[in-house]
Design goal:
Blueprint lengths: L2 E5 L12 H10 L4 E7 L22 H14 L5 E9 L5 H11 L5 E5 L2 E4 L2 E4 L4 H11 L2 H17 L9 E2 L9 H4 L6 H14 L2 E5 L15 H10 L3 E4 L12 H5 L3
Parallel strand pairs: 1-2, 2-3, 3-4, 7-8, 8-9
Antiparallel strand pairs: 5-6
Helix pairs in contact: 4-5, 5-7, 7-8
């Protein structure tokens, strides 16, 4: 069965306005039987979005409209495609309680969810480390090295896996090597093999799923899956459930590079 478990939507504030149906018809035409819309959840109460347009997540007042629209589509297309209502939830250190409250409120209405790290804490501020190569390199300068950025990212991913976010905590870890996004920009060879394997073992220990995310293949600074293929194989050997995700932010990007994942099965 072909599934795409990481898809954004017209409710994404930094994506396109492609309608839900554009994604749905493409999924059906592409032979997919199961898709999850996992829009960026509203950021936790009290958190100040550091991106220039402050468009990292949905506004809180849009959340119920998003879920209601999906409920209608789930019923309409029930004979052709399984559509799951989901969210991509940001793990932000220091805002665990606020995130847990949001999940307690909305979790019962979700079919699926992903827990991802985009924001890294440094000196009482948060940086969206995957926003741009320039932001990444500024953080590396502030921390003293590219290696230090990688370590901070992996520390945060580990914290996300271990965090108590309540009964509705997402059970899938998103793009676990997102910090590779600018590896061809900084051009430093970082040996993070042990860190990645440790994270995968933690995912296994906690009984979580792994987002096998193809978006990095479209990023000229990355050109690989998140995580790369050898670690997908390692996760498979560990027995971690693997869920392909195109992380599409428009209909054209839906299922991109999916064949590279499914031919590996």
């Amino acid at each position: 069965m072909k599934r795409d478990g990481h898809i954004h939507s017209p409710f994404c504030p930094h994506g396109t306005s492609d309608p839900f149906r554009a994604y749905i018809y493409k999924a059906i035409d592409s032979g997919f039987q199961d898709i999850s819309f996992t829009e960026h959840a509203p950021l936790p109460e009290g958190f100040w979005d550091p991106t220039p347009a402050q468009d990292s997540g949905m506004k809180r007042n849009e959340l119920l409209h998003y879920l209601a629209a999906l409920e209608q589509l789930k019923e309409e297309f029930s004979g052709n495609l399984r559509i799951r209502s989901g969210l991509e939830v940001d793990f932000i250190q220091g805002f665990e309680q606020q995130t847990a409250r949001l999940l307690d409120e909305i979790g019962p209405q979700l079919d699926d969810s992903i827990l991802s790290v985009h924001f890294l804490a440094h000196k009482d501020q948060w940086i969206c480390a995957d926003f741009s190569a320039e932001v990444f390199m500024k953080l590396a300068q502030d921390l003293g090295s590219v290696r230090a950025v990688y370590d901070l990212y992996y520390d945060t991913v580990e914290a996300s896996i271990k965090a108590d976010l309540g009964p509705y905590k997402p059970k899938r870890i998103g793009h676990a090597t997102l910090i590779h996004k600018f590896q061809h920009n900084h051009r430093e060879a970082i040996d993070d093999d042990a860190r990645i394997r440790k994270i995968l073992r933690l995912i296994k220990e906690h009984g979580y799923e792994l987002d096998v995310n193809s978006a990095g293949l479209s990023k000229p600074g990355c050109l690989e899956f998140y995580p790369p293929l050898p670690y997908i194989d390692y996760a498979r050997r560990l027995g971690i459930p693997l869920v392909f995700g195109s992380d599409a932010h428009n209909a054209a990007g839906l299922h991109k590079y999916a064949n590279q994942f499914y031919t590996e099965q």
